[in-house]
Protein backbone atom coordinates (compact mmCIF):
# COMPACT_ATOMS: atom_id res chain seq x y z
CA UNK A 1 0.00 0.00 0.00
CA UNK A 2 0.92 3.63 -0.28
CA UNK A 3 2.53 5.09 2.81
CA UNK A 4 0.85 8.43 3.45
CA UNK A 5 2.44 10.91 5.87
CA UNK A 6 0.73 14.05 7.10
CA UNK A 7 0.99 16.47 10.01
CA UNK A 8 -1.09 19.15 11.69
CA UNK A 9 0.15 21.85 14.00
CA UNK A 10 -1.20 22.04 17.55
CA UNK A 11 -1.74 25.77 17.28
CA UNK A 12 -5.38 26.01 18.32
CA UNK A 13 -8.75 24.43 17.71
CA UNK A 14 -9.15 23.14 14.17
CA UNK A 15 -11.39 25.04 11.80
CA UNK A 16 -13.47 23.47 9.07
CA UNK A 17 -10.77 24.34 6.51
CA UNK A 18 -8.33 22.13 8.45
CA UNK A 19 -11.04 19.51 8.85
CA UNK A 20 -12.29 19.19 5.27
CA UNK A 21 -8.94 20.15 3.71
CA UNK A 22 -6.68 17.91 5.76
CA UNK A 23 -8.12 15.72 8.53
CA UNK A 24 -11.05 14.19 6.69
CA UNK A 25 -8.92 13.59 3.61
CA UNK A 26 -6.45 11.61 5.74
CA UNK A 27 -9.25 9.62 7.33
CA UNK A 28 -10.61 8.74 3.90
CA UNK A 29 -7.17 7.62 2.72
CA UNK A 30 -6.88 5.46 5.84
CA UNK A 31 -10.32 4.00 5.20
CA UNK A 32 -9.45 3.19 1.61
CA UNK A 33 -6.47 1.12 2.73
CA UNK A 34 -3.51 3.50 2.72
CA UNK A 35 -0.89 3.13 5.44
CA UNK A 36 -1.36 6.46 7.25
CA UNK A 37 1.16 8.09 9.58
CA UNK A 38 -0.42 11.18 11.09
CA UNK A 39 1.55 13.36 13.46
CA UNK A 40 0.97 16.40 15.59
CA UNK A 41 3.56 18.84 14.32
CA UNK A 42 4.66 20.46 17.54
CA UNK A 43 8.21 21.06 16.27
CA UNK A 44 6.84 22.95 13.29
CA UNK A 45 4.64 25.03 15.54
CA UNK A 46 7.71 26.34 17.35
CA UNK A 47 8.63 28.46 14.34
CA UNK A 48 6.24 30.97 15.88
CA UNK A 49 6.22 31.52 19.63
CA UNK A 50 4.02 29.05 21.53
CA UNK A 51 3.03 29.39 25.15
CA UNK A 52 4.17 26.08 26.72
CA UNK A 53 0.93 25.41 28.62
CA UNK A 54 -1.19 26.14 25.56
CA UNK A 55 1.02 23.98 23.37
CA UNK A 56 0.54 21.07 25.74
CA UNK A 57 -3.24 21.59 25.97
CA UNK A 58 -3.54 22.05 22.20
CA UNK A 59 -1.68 18.80 21.60
CA UNK A 60 -4.19 16.81 23.65
CA UNK A 61 -7.11 18.68 22.12
CA UNK A 62 -5.88 17.96 18.60
CA UNK A 63 -5.48 14.29 19.52
CA UNK A 64 -9.11 14.21 20.61
CA UNK A 65 -10.32 15.90 17.41
CA UNK A 66 -8.30 13.57 15.20
CA UNK A 67 -9.73 10.50 16.92
CA UNK A 68 -13.20 12.04 16.83
CA UNK A 69 -12.78 12.60 13.09
CA UNK A 70 -12.20 8.91 12.51
CA UNK A 71 -8.45 8.40 12.73
CA UNK A 72 -8.10 4.79 13.84
CA UNK A 73 -5.00 4.47 16.05
CA UNK A 74 -4.77 0.76 15.37
CA UNK A 75 -4.83 0.88 11.60
CA UNK A 76 -2.94 4.17 11.39
CA UNK A 77 -0.02 5.48 13.41
CA UNK A 78 -0.82 8.71 15.23
CA UNK A 79 1.84 10.41 17.34
CA UNK A 80 3.51 13.64 18.40
CA UNK A 81 6.37 14.72 16.14
CA UNK A 82 8.75 15.63 18.97
CA UNK A 83 8.37 12.21 20.55
CA UNK A 84 10.19 10.67 17.59
CA UNK A 85 13.63 12.29 17.70
CA UNK A 86 14.53 10.96 14.25
CA UNK A 87 12.50 13.73 12.59
CA UNK A 88 14.88 16.37 13.95
CA UNK A 89 17.93 14.19 13.41
CA UNK A 90 17.16 13.53 9.76
CA UNK A 91 16.31 17.21 9.38
CA UNK A 92 19.90 18.08 10.29
CA UNK A 93 21.31 15.63 7.74
CA UNK A 94 19.04 17.00 5.04
CA UNK A 95 19.77 20.58 6.05
CA UNK A 96 23.39 19.90 5.17
CA UNK A 97 22.24 19.10 1.61
CA UNK A 98 19.87 22.04 1.28
CA UNK A 99 20.96 25.47 0.14
CA UNK A 100 20.14 28.77 1.70
CA UNK A 101 19.40 30.28 -1.72
CA UNK A 102 16.75 27.67 -2.54
CA UNK A 103 15.01 27.90 0.83
CA UNK A 104 15.10 31.68 1.07
CA UNK A 105 13.40 31.94 -2.34
CA UNK A 106 10.31 29.97 -1.41
CA UNK A 107 7.26 32.25 -1.60
CA UNK A 108 5.85 31.09 1.74
CA UNK A 109 9.13 31.86 3.52
CA UNK A 110 9.35 35.28 1.89
CA UNK A 111 5.78 36.07 2.85
CA UNK A 112 6.10 34.97 6.49
CA UNK A 113 9.59 36.35 7.12
CA UNK A 114 8.62 39.73 5.64
CA UNK A 115 6.24 40.20 8.57
CA UNK A 116 8.89 39.45 11.20
CA UNK A 117 11.53 41.67 12.73
CA UNK A 118 13.78 38.77 13.69
CA UNK A 119 13.49 35.73 11.44
CA UNK A 120 14.24 32.41 13.19
CA UNK A 121 16.39 29.93 11.26
CA UNK A 122 13.67 27.37 12.01
CA UNK A 123 11.35 29.20 9.65
CA UNK A 124 13.87 28.83 6.85
CA UNK A 125 14.33 25.16 7.71
CA UNK A 126 10.60 24.46 7.86
CA UNK A 127 10.45 22.73 4.44
CA UNK A 128 13.53 20.67 5.29
CA UNK A 129 11.86 19.42 8.47
CA UNK A 130 8.76 18.68 6.38
CA UNK A 131 10.91 16.62 4.02
CA UNK A 132 12.40 14.78 7.01
CA UNK A 133 8.90 14.10 8.38
CA UNK A 134 8.05 12.15 5.24
CA UNK A 135 11.41 10.64 4.31
CA UNK A 136 12.09 9.28 7.80
CA UNK A 137 9.27 6.80 7.11
CA UNK A 138 10.04 6.38 3.42
CA UNK A 139 6.66 7.98 2.85
CA UNK A 140 5.40 7.63 -0.70
CA UNK A 141 2.44 10.04 -0.68
CA UNK A 142 1.57 13.32 0.96
CA UNK A 143 -1.89 14.89 0.88
CA UNK A 144 -1.24 18.57 0.23
CA UNK A 145 -2.86 21.81 -0.73
CA UNK A 146 -1.63 23.75 -3.76
CA UNK A 147 0.44 26.08 -1.56
CA UNK A 148 2.38 23.12 -0.17
CA UNK A 149 3.47 21.81 -3.58
CA UNK A 150 6.58 24.01 -3.46
CA UNK A 151 7.63 22.28 -0.26
CA UNK A 152 7.17 18.87 -1.77
CA UNK A 153 9.45 20.00 -4.59
CA UNK A 154 12.10 20.80 -1.98
CA UNK A 155 11.72 17.26 -0.66
CA UNK A 156 12.05 15.85 -4.18
CA UNK A 157 15.21 17.86 -4.75
CA UNK A 158 16.70 16.70 -1.45
CA UNK A 159 15.97 13.10 -2.46
CA UNK A 160 17.76 13.66 -5.78
CA UNK A 161 20.78 15.24 -4.11
CA UNK A 162 20.89 12.45 -1.56
CA UNK A 163 20.70 9.74 -4.21
CA UNK A 164 23.36 11.41 -6.30
CA UNK A 165 25.82 11.44 -3.39
CA UNK A 166 24.94 8.36 -1.38
CA UNK A 167 22.71 6.05 -3.44
CA UNK A 168 19.00 5.34 -3.46
CA UNK A 169 17.38 5.27 -0.06
CA UNK A 170 14.10 7.16 -0.34
CA UNK A 171 11.12 7.02 -2.67
CA UNK A 172 10.32 10.45 -4.10
CA UNK A 173 7.15 11.49 -2.27
CA UNK A 174 4.17 12.21 -4.51
CA UNK A 175 1.47 14.80 -3.85
CA UNK A 176 -2.14 13.74 -3.43
CA UNK A 177 -4.41 16.64 -4.36
CA UNK A 178 -8.04 16.29 -3.38
CA UNK A 179 -9.46 17.75 -6.58
CA UNK A 180 -12.69 18.74 -4.82
CA UNK A 181 -11.70 22.29 -3.88
CA UNK A 182 -11.26 21.39 -0.22
CA UNK A 183 -7.61 22.50 -0.26
CA UNK A 184 -8.49 26.13 0.03
CA UNK A 185 -11.60 27.11 1.89
CA UNK A 186 -11.94 30.84 2.22
CA UNK A 187 -12.42 33.21 5.11
CA UNK A 188 -16.10 33.88 5.81
CA UNK A 189 -15.31 37.57 6.36
CA UNK A 190 -12.98 38.15 3.41
CA UNK A 191 -13.38 35.51 0.70
CA UNK A 192 -10.20 36.67 -1.05
CA UNK A 193 -8.23 35.16 1.87
CA UNK A 194 -8.00 31.55 3.05
CA UNK A 195 -9.75 30.50 6.23
CA UNK A 196 -7.02 30.52 8.84
CA UNK A 197 -6.44 29.84 12.54
CA UNK A 198 -4.44 33.02 12.91
CA UNK A 199 -7.01 35.43 11.41
CA UNK A 200 -7.81 38.08 14.03
CA UNK A 201 -11.56 37.90 13.31
CA UNK A 202 -13.10 34.78 14.92
CA UNK A 203 -16.13 35.10 12.59
CA UNK A 204 -13.82 34.41 9.64
CA UNK A 205 -13.71 30.71 10.54
CA UNK A 206 -15.93 27.97 11.90
CA UNK A 207 -14.23 25.88 14.57
CA UNK A 208 -14.90 22.19 15.07
CA UNK A 209 -15.81 23.13 18.67
CA UNK A 210 -18.45 25.69 17.64
CA UNK A 211 -21.97 24.77 18.81
CA UNK A 212 -24.78 24.79 16.24
CA UNK A 213 -25.92 28.29 17.22
CA UNK A 214 -22.44 29.72 16.58
CA UNK A 215 -22.15 27.90 13.24
CA UNK A 216 -25.51 29.35 12.21
CA UNK A 217 -24.46 32.85 13.25
CA UNK A 218 -21.12 32.71 11.44
CA UNK A 219 -22.71 31.44 8.22
CA UNK A 220 -25.42 34.12 8.45
CA UNK A 221 -22.73 36.80 8.77
CA UNK A 222 -20.61 35.39 5.95
CA UNK A 223 -19.68 38.03 3.38
CA UNK A 224 -21.18 37.36 -0.05
CA UNK A 225 -22.01 39.94 -2.75
CA UNK A 226 -24.97 41.90 -4.10
CA UNK A 227 -26.38 39.23 -6.42
CA UNK A 228 -29.17 37.28 -4.72
CA UNK A 229 -28.99 34.08 -6.87
CA UNK A 230 -26.79 31.18 -5.86
CA UNK A 231 -24.18 30.28 -8.48
CA UNK A 232 -20.81 28.55 -8.36
CA UNK A 233 -18.15 30.79 -9.80
CA UNK A 234 -15.12 30.94 -7.50
CA UNK A 235 -13.34 33.60 -9.56
CA UNK A 236 -16.02 36.25 -9.80
CA UNK A 237 -18.17 35.26 -6.79
CA UNK A 238 -15.74 33.88 -4.19
CA UNK A 239 -18.01 34.43 -1.18
CA UNK A 240 -21.09 32.60 -2.46
CA UNK A 241 -18.97 29.92 -4.10
CA UNK A 242 -17.23 29.28 -0.79
CA UNK A 243 -20.63 28.61 0.79
CA UNK A 244 -21.50 26.25 -2.07
CA UNK A 245 -18.18 24.50 -1.49
CA UNK A 246 -18.89 24.11 2.24
CA UNK A 247 -22.34 22.74 1.45
CA UNK A 248 -20.77 20.23 -0.96
CA UNK A 249 -18.11 19.10 1.51
CA UNK A 250 -20.63 18.75 4.32
CA UNK A 251 -22.97 16.63 2.20
CA UNK A 252 -20.55 15.00 -0.24
CA UNK A 253 -22.03 16.46 -3.35
CA UNK A 254 -20.89 18.32 -6.45
CA UNK A 255 -21.24 22.09 -6.93
CA UNK A 256 -23.76 21.53 -9.78
CA UNK A 257 -25.97 19.54 -7.44
CA UNK A 258 -25.76 22.13 -4.67
CA UNK A 259 -26.59 24.96 -7.07
CA UNK A 260 -29.52 23.03 -8.47
CA UNK A 261 -30.82 22.47 -4.96
CA UNK A 262 -30.48 26.19 -4.26
CA UNK A 263 -32.55 27.19 -7.30
CA UNK A 264 -35.10 29.82 -6.36
CA UNK A 265 -33.40 30.59 -3.04
CA UNK A 266 -31.71 33.90 -2.29
CA UNK A 267 -28.21 33.74 -0.83
CA UNK A 268 -29.73 34.72 2.54
CA UNK A 269 -32.09 31.72 2.38
CA UNK A 270 -29.36 29.46 1.06
CA UNK A 271 -27.21 30.30 4.09
CA UNK A 272 -29.71 28.43 6.26
CA UNK A 273 -29.29 25.34 4.09
CA UNK A 274 -25.51 25.59 4.32
CA UNK A 275 -25.55 26.15 8.09
CA UNK A 276 -27.78 23.16 8.64
CA UNK A 277 -25.56 20.94 6.45
CA UNK A 278 -22.47 22.06 8.37
CA UNK A 279 -24.13 21.52 11.75
CA UNK A 280 -25.03 17.95 10.81
CA UNK A 281 -21.52 17.23 9.54
CA UNK A 282 -19.68 18.75 12.50
CA UNK A 283 -21.95 17.93 15.46
CA UNK A 284 -20.91 14.24 15.75
CA UNK A 285 -17.21 15.14 15.60
CA UNK A 286 -17.65 17.85 18.25
CA UNK A 287 -19.58 15.54 20.54
CA UNK A 288 -17.13 12.66 20.21
CA UNK A 289 -14.18 15.01 20.83
CA UNK A 290 -15.82 16.41 23.98
CA UNK A 291 -16.24 12.90 25.37
CA UNK A 292 -12.63 12.00 24.52
CA UNK A 293 -11.32 15.16 26.18
CA UNK A 294 -12.77 13.96 29.45
CA UNK A 295 -10.28 11.10 29.34
CA UNK A 296 -6.83 12.64 28.87
CA UNK A 297 -5.10 9.48 30.11
CA UNK A 298 -6.59 7.55 27.19
CA UNK A 299 -5.40 10.22 24.77
CA UNK A 300 -1.88 10.07 26.22
CA UNK A 301 -1.87 6.28 25.85
CA UNK A 302 -2.82 6.56 22.20
CA UNK A 303 0.05 8.98 21.63
CA UNK A 304 2.52 6.86 23.57
CA UNK A 305 1.70 3.74 21.58
CA UNK A 306 1.76 5.66 18.32
CA UNK A 307 5.20 7.08 19.11
CA UNK A 308 6.57 3.65 19.95
CA UNK A 309 5.38 2.26 16.62
CA UNK A 310 6.64 5.29 14.70
CA UNK A 311 10.08 5.04 16.34
CA UNK A 312 10.55 1.49 15.13
CA UNK A 313 9.99 2.59 11.53
CA UNK A 314 12.04 5.76 11.85
CA UNK A 315 15.00 4.01 13.50
CA UNK A 316 15.25 1.54 10.66
CA UNK A 317 15.33 4.23 7.97
CA UNK A 318 17.61 6.53 9.94
CA UNK A 319 20.12 3.77 10.54
CA UNK A 320 20.25 3.05 6.82
CA UNK A 321 20.76 6.74 6.04
CA UNK A 322 23.38 7.28 8.73
CA UNK A 323 25.36 4.28 7.57
CA UNK A 324 25.46 5.56 4.01
CA UNK A 325 26.72 8.91 5.20
CA UNK A 326 29.49 7.23 7.11
CA UNK A 327 28.08 8.13 10.49
CA UNK A 328 28.77 5.49 13.06
CA UNK A 329 25.21 5.54 14.37
CA UNK A 330 23.79 2.88 16.58
CA UNK A 331 20.05 2.66 17.00
N1 LIG B 1 -8.50 27.38 4.48
C1 LIG B 1 -8.12 26.13 4.34
N2 LIG B 1 -8.76 25.32 3.48
C2 LIG B 1 -8.38 24.05 3.33
N3 LIG B 1 -7.38 23.49 4.01
C3 LIG B 1 -6.71 24.25 4.87
N4 LIG B 1 -5.68 24.01 5.69
C4 LIG B 1 -5.40 25.12 6.40
N5 LIG B 1 -6.22 26.10 6.04
C5 LIG B 1 -7.05 25.60 5.10
C6 LIG B 1 -5.00 22.73 5.79
O1 LIG B 1 -5.09 22.29 7.12
C7 LIG B 1 -3.88 21.67 7.49
C8 LIG B 1 -3.44 22.36 8.75
O2 LIG B 1 -2.15 22.60 8.74
P1 LIG B 1 -1.46 23.40 9.88
O3 LIG B 1 -1.92 22.92 11.19
O4 LIG B 1 -0.02 23.33 9.55
O5 LIG B 1 -2.02 24.90 9.76
P2 LIG B 1 -1.83 25.98 8.60
O6 LIG B 1 -1.56 25.37 7.29
O7 LIG B 1 -0.86 26.98 9.08
O8 LIG B 1 -3.27 26.62 8.44
P3 LIG B 1 -4.15 27.28 9.52
O9 LIG B 1 -4.69 26.23 10.40
O10 LIG B 1 -5.17 28.11 8.88
O11 LIG B 1 -3.17 28.20 10.33
P4 LIG B 1 -2.54 29.62 9.89
O12 LIG B 1 -3.26 30.59 10.74
O13 LIG B 1 -1.10 29.47 10.26
O14 LIG B 1 -2.76 29.86 8.43
C9 LIG B 1 -2.93 21.78 6.32
O15 LIG B 1 -2.95 20.56 5.59
C10 LIG B 1 -3.53 22.87 5.49
O16 LIG B 1 -3.27 22.71 4.10
Distance between the termini: 26 Å
Mean pLDDT, all residues: 96
How many domain regions?
2
Helical run tally = 13
| Approximate strand percentage | 5-15%
**Strand line-up of the largest beta sheet:** 1-2-3
Q: Any guess at the CATH architecture of the largest domain?
A: 3-Layer(aba) Sandwich
| Low-confidence sequence ranges | none
Which molecules are bound in this entry? adenosine-5'-tetraphosphate
Radius of gyration, rounded?
21 Å
Largest sheet: 3 strands, parallel
Question: What is the tally of beta strands?
Answer: 5
Category from helices, strands and their pairing: mainly alpha
> What is the H/E string?
EHEHHEHHHHEHEHHHHH
Helix share bin: 40-55%
What is the CATH third-level topology name of the largest domain? Rossmann fold
**Rough outline:** globular
Q: Identify the CATH homologous superfamily of the largest domain.
A: HUPs
The CATH top-level class label of the largest domain: Alpha Beta
Amino acid sequence: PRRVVSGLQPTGTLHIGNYFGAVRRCVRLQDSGDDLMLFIADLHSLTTHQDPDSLHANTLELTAYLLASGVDPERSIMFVQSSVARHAELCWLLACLATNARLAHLPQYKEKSAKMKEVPIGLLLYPVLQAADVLVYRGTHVPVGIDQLQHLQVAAQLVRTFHHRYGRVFPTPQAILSGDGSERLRSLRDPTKKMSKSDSDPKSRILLSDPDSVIELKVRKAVTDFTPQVTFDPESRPGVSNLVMLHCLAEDKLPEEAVEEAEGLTTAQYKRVVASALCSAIRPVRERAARLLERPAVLRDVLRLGAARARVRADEVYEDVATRLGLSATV
